[in-house]
Amino acid sequence: MNARGAIAVIAVALVGGVTAGGCAGASADAVTTINFWGLGREGEVVAQLVPEFERRNPGLRVRVQQIPWTAAHEKLLTAFVGDATPDVAQLGNTWIPEFVALDALVPLDDRVAASAVVDRADYFAGIWDTNVIADTTYGIPWYVDTRVLFYRSDLLDSVGYATPPATWAEWRDAMERLRARMSPRQYPALLPINEWPQPVALALQLGSPLLRDGGRYGAFSDSAFRTAFTFYVGLYRDRLASSISNTEISNRYQEFARGNVAMMITGPWEIGEFRRRLPPELQDSWMTAPLPAPDSLTPGVSLAGGASLVIFRRSRHQDAAWRLVEYLSEPEQQLRFYELTGDLPARRAAWRDSVLAGNRYARAFRTQLENVRPTPKVPEWEQIATAIAEQLEQAVRGGKPVPVVLAALDRSVNAILEKRRWLLDRGAIEPAAPVGATAGTVPR
Amino acid sequence: MPSIARGVARSERNPAAWLFLAPALILIAVFFLLPVIAALMLSVTDFDIYALRDPANARLVWLENYARLLRSPLFWQALRNTLYFAVVGGPLSIAASLGAALLLNGRTVRLRGLFRTIYFTPFVTTLVAVAIVWRYLYHPRYGLLNYALGWIGVAPIDWLGDPRWAMPAIIIMAVWKNFGYNMLIFIAGLQAIPTELYEAAEMDGAGSLSRFRHVTWPMLGPTMLFAGVITMIGYFQIFAEPYVMTQGGPLRATTTVVLLMYEEGFRWWRMGYAASIAFVLFVIILLATLVQFRLQRGEER
């Protein structure tokens, strides 16, 4: 028994049988069954796109397995160990480095090159880049996610900002003006202190690599990250943002509706929530805008999030699986998927349609998506992100000076990356490309 | 104890005994001993997803996992949460079980079988189904519990969203779900108490309270020890309730030691680290069990 088998046995013995799902392949001879794992709401909805695919491909059947997001990561890892991975799966694009480290995914470059449907140039470059590791493409973006500014246009208008702030200086100025008008219990911005995407996006705007030397060490004490972090922490110190975490906010929509909060930075899923939860009379008083940039010359980049479609190495139906990926990547299907879920399409072609072009709240996302950048593509990223949020809390609530906090952050990140350095030194893995090197323009 | 010693000596000489024991011993070896040894070995390595790809990527780190664990604030928080759950939930569960058992054991109770079944039902119901119903009950706005609290003028509580209330919410649900099992054990224990003792006590003029104190309580001693130890072991291993209800949140307020182990092991696949958590928990439970035995013995004396 090899080590992996042994682990599997232990795993099963200890937990008492973690179900790995995804049973064995098709039984009928003529029909090939593609096992597809969809996550959360997307996994539920994708079933509505399947009949058309099956109609076009009489020999193929798709079995959709829906997995809740909260359990998806462990299910996928357990499936990998238990040799029970599906043919195709939806993968959060920050998970791709991890599954590539496991050598679980099929490289897709040749298929993309030969494909009439998947046209790399039609995808947002920063989003596509999240799927590329060491010059190899492992996933096709399915839908995208990034963070933009949601704001109360009436409140900003009342302090002289008829158009949303475009630079950090304007942003801060708008907040200071709002502060002057607000009561002490109201705040210009809602920026939960346990969320890492906001400070990381600002640091990426200044060109911070976040990690250096191919993902060997943290680069959080470097001037780019320090400048962004200082700016961000300053918003709390000057009471422009309330220093609370997102679990302490009872109802952000209510706070927004009452004008207790005038801005927040969040993702596309909130468009639907804002429409549903804000009272009708407020629907003309809120808007979205791309993230403010450090200055008027630098693009205000944001994070490249979303989910991709991947094919697993152990799949015995890789050609059929690719046909499903191609089908789901058609602009028409992307659009249908948007209508069903509200998830923003990964292809520019789908955005040209009137359905999306008519959604005024989505426009800022369209602009922002041209300027998104991936986080470092190392399997340890999730842990590193948690460490950033922890140190942010130390700076805001603990009141520690920024340099002290960032030195501590570098220390803990370097400890997280210790294994990675050892593997790199042995030549067991490839160094990670610096973020921003392959996508869009690199500021400064 | 000469008789036991003689028995052991005889079995060593008797090969047939080993033959009869073999099936059980083999099962224990394969499904208990081997995994334990493997887990112990894992706990001194840094087995992670890199090692999953190639076992050569695992290193022997000796006690580094344990040292890291003891330095980790998250582990201490998980331990605090677990102790909170065990120390509050355990006695509460025992009290509920004993109370229900005493009620059902009363001579005047009708439909005893029906009530016993009703009280036992939560224990045999699937946890996930129970959790869904309880999530409705705990809903801050539409939940029945807050609705009922509203009658007596208590402001709505965000049961599962407030870090201060999440653990009490889990405890209430766990006690409700589990008390039926111990209740059955206590009923059995109560029925084993000879009625003559009660009659004698009654003749001596003992009221119902002193009958409980001087007859029921001491006679239930062994049952209590059993129920206490089993409950404590079970409550220290609390996992499914927070996993299904809160995923360890909010603000890690319901992250227990086993949940942490599960997350480390199966979510992030840091198997070495997760195994070390398992062994630390094992030592804690062992110590707690010893303490409980000691306490009980002290009481008997």
Q: How many E strands of chain A?
A: 16
Number of strands of chain B: 0
Residues in β-strands, percent of chain B:
under 5%
CATH topology of the largest domain in chain A: D-Maltodextrin-Binding Protein, domain 2
Structural class, from helix and strand content of chain B?
mainly alpha
Q: Counting H and I runs of at least 4 residues, what is the number of helices of chain B?
A: 15
How would you name the CATH homologous superfamily of the largest domain in chain A? Periplasmic binding protein-like II
Order of helices and strands of chain B: HHHHHHHHHHHHHHH
Based on the coordinates given, report the CATH architecture of chain B: Orthogonal Bundle
The gist of it:
The complex is a heterodimer of chains A (444) and B (301). Chain A has 444 residues and is an alpha/beta fold.
Task: Walk me through this protein's architecture.
The complex is a heterodimer of chains A (444) and B (301). With 444 residues, chain A is an alpha/beta fold. Chain A folds into two domains: 7-145 and 305-373, D-Maltodextrin-Binding Protein, domain 2, CATH 3.40.190; 148-302 and 378-426, 3-Layer(aba) Sandwich (D-Maltodextrin-Binding Protein, domain 2). In chain A, 44% of the residues lie in helices and 15% in strands. Chain A has 21 helices and 16 strands. In chain A, helix 19 (381-396) runs antiparallel to helix 20 (402-416). Chain B is an all-alpha fold and 301 residues long. Chain B has one domain (72-300): MetI-like fold. Chain B has 15 helices and no strands. In chain B, helix 5 (73-105) runs parallel beside helix 9 and helix 5 (73-105) packs antiparallel against helix 12. The radius of gyration of chain B is 24 Å and the shape is globular. Chain A binds chain B through residues 2-4, 6-7, 9-11, 13-15, 18, 70, 73-74, 77-78, 80-81, 98, 101-103, 245, 247, 250, 379, 382-383, 419, 422-423, 428-429, and chain B through 31, 35, 38-39, 42, 46-59, 158, 161, 163, 247, 249-251, 262, 265-269, 271, 278.
